Amino acid sequence: MKNIGIIIYARTSSKRLPNKVLKKIFDKSLLEIVYFRVKRGSKKIPIIVNTSQNKSDNEIIKFCKKNKIIFFRGNLNNVLERTINCCKKFKLNSFVRVNADRPYWDFKVMLKMINLYLSNDYDIVTNQYPRNFPSGLACEVASTNIFYNLKTKDLTKNEKEHIFNHFYKNGNKYKILNYKDNFYNKIKKIKLSVDNKKDFLKIEKIYKKIG
């Protein structure tokens, strides 16, 4: 069993929808919804909420402390640096990336991808190379070594913010498995992530109908 962790990325400084991860549907915030969906499939794998050191994210820390959730704080704009430091602090050999704006996160897919990663010798198991899942159901399981070995000074701003882009651009240098699912592939054009107010209202409407 490799020392694996699930990292949930959350921040309140979204330009298109500020504080979106703390916006509530009924009595639960998006962060809370995502956390408890992940927890259902975590199988005792540690879950870490990864956020920034900015004061604006203090409310995220309050949520974590209230629910006894492990958290890590780092550089707001350099997500790659924050990821590497988080993995080093908790001595992770591998991790799963989850974003807190994905209220329909599928923990069953996550478990299948974790099992594929743990039983093989891949650097990354993903459903984004190329994307064959709806927006909001993206999942990556990766070795921390490939991050530790990066020459971060040579990376672009985009690659520091979207931490898997460098690996996908240089896919021939890494062992990457693209996980596929026939059902999700058929509906991959559906958007289930929350980027703006319109997305949030749509998700809220769906939740009120089906719970």
Give unreliable regions as ranges.
Answer: none
Mean pLDDT: 95
Strand order of the largest sheet: 5-4-1-6-8-7-9
Q: Helical proportion?
A: 25-40%
Compute the gyration radius: what is it? Answer: 16 Å
Descriptive account of the structure:
The protein has 211 residues and is α/β, with parallel strands linked by helices. 36% of the residues lie in helices and 18% in strands. The protein contains nine helices and nine strands. It has helices spanning 30-40, 58-66, 79-89, 107-118, 145-148, 157-161, 165-169, 182-186, 197-210, and strands at residues 4-9, 24-25, 28-29, 47-52, 70-74, 94-99, 124-126, 140-143, 176-178. It has a seven-stranded mixed beta sheet, sandwiched between helices. Strand 2 and strand 3 (28-29) form a beta hairpin. It is globular. The protein starts with a strand and ends with a helix.
Gist of the model:
This protein has 211 residues and is α/β, with parallel strands linked by helices.
Features:
single chain; 211 residues; alpha/beta; 7-stranded mixed sheet; two-stranded antiparallel ribbon; 36% helix; globular
What is the secondary structure topology, with strand pairs?
Blueprint: E1 4-9, E2 24-25, E3 28-29, H1 30-40, E4 47-52, H2 58-66, E5 70-74, H3 79-89, E6 94-99, H4 107-118, E7 124-126, E8 140-143, H5 145-148, H6 157-161, H7 165-169, E9 176-178, H8 182-186, H9 197-210
Parallel strand pairs: 1-4, 1-6, 4-5, 7-9
Antiparallel strand pairs: 2-3, 6-8, 7-8
